[in-house]
Specification:
With 287 residues, the chain is an alpha/beta fold. It is built from 14 helices and five strands. Helices cover 60% and strands 9% of the residues. It has a five-stranded parallel β-sheet with strand order 2-1-3-4-5, with helices on both faces.
């Protein structure tokens, strides 16, 4: 809810922006203060406070404060941080999409281009030399790892995806200098992934870690010769289904795939990709 209002802030009239800024500064206080106090603190009229609530999609101040209290205190546990229990399908469309767009724009502004540059260089060199590129993830992140492998193998590189902890350990043990292990984790606290990343590092491979900054796994990505692609988002991984985090991890994979494809060069890739497309046409029904 707060992320959606923050994203909508520039589109609000100046007076309503002051109400929004008051809300974002202290959401808990906003939920408990009377309208007269809110108007005084924001230096607006009481009707402006009500108009702000309606501008961001609520029936009025009472409805807004009810939803705000739920969002600040509990939200809808294990479902989605941006929605309310009584939301209609139309509300869900707006809230889920706005929440995702806000997170993507925030990531666009915060992503470290120098870290992506190092990751793309390491992956490109591994691809050119016929070295191994492996993607590790468990649970939801394992699905992202599979998506990454699906994108990279079409570039003609030697790549696999592992989502089983035991297979990850065995596979990491067989890595060597010049190989790359891309480790994907929402929480950055998975023991299996941390063990696999440490083994890959000890074997001389470059580990590229996609996870939340400040996590134990992120700390491993800051070691010499390793690469951390920090992906931060507002989801609480202990409470909510990984929705926005999954999108951000997929975006990070898309950036890596595009960067490596450009580095490998159109001259080598174009004939291969054209042949793949030709062969796939035989699997489709004719128009």
């Amino acid at each position: 809810m707060l992320e959606r209002i923050k994203a909508a802030l520039p589109a609000l009239p100046p007076a309503e922006q002051r109400v929004a800024k008051l809300l974002l500064a202290d959401a808990r206080a906003f939920a408990n203060l009377p309208v007269s106090e809110l108007a005084d603190r924001a230096h607006v009229s009481k009707p402006t406070v009500v108009r702000f609530c309606r501008s961001v999609g609520y029936d009025g101040l009472a409805d807004f404060k009810l939803k705000l209290a739920g969002s600040v205190n509990e939200g809808v546990p294990f479902v989605h941080r941006a929605v309310d229990e009584d939301d209609k399908p139309g509300d869900l469309i707006v809230k889920v999409v706005d929440n995702a767009v806000a997170a993507l724009l925030h990531y666009r502004n915060d992503a470290a281009s120098h870290a992506f540059e190092r990751a793309i260089a390491a992956l490109t060199e591994a691809g050119r030399q016929g070295k191994r590129i492996e993607f590790y993830g468990v649970g939801n992140s394992g699905i992202v790892a599979q998506d990454a492998q699906h994108k990279f193998f079409r570039l003609g590189v030697n790549t696999i995806a592992c989502s089983d902890g035991h297979v990850q350990l065995m596979s990491a043990t067989m890595l060597g200098p010049g190989d790359c292990a891309v480790v994907i984790s929402n929480s950055g606290r998975s023991r299996d992934l941390m063990d696999a990343a440490e083994i890959a590092r000890k074997k001389g491979a470059t580990t590229i870690i996609i996870t939340a900054s400040g996590s134990p796994l992120a700390a491993m990505g800051q070691a010499p010769g390793q690469v951390l692609l920090a992906v931060d988002h507002p989801e609480d991984f202990d409470r909510y289904s990984p929705m926005v985090s999954r999108l951000l991890h997929l975006i990070a994979v898309d950036i890596l795939t595009t960067g490596v494809a450009l580095q490998l060069g159109q001259q080598n890739l174009r004939p291969l990709l054209q042949e793949i497309k030709r062969n796939l046409r035989s699997k489709r029904y004719a128009n």
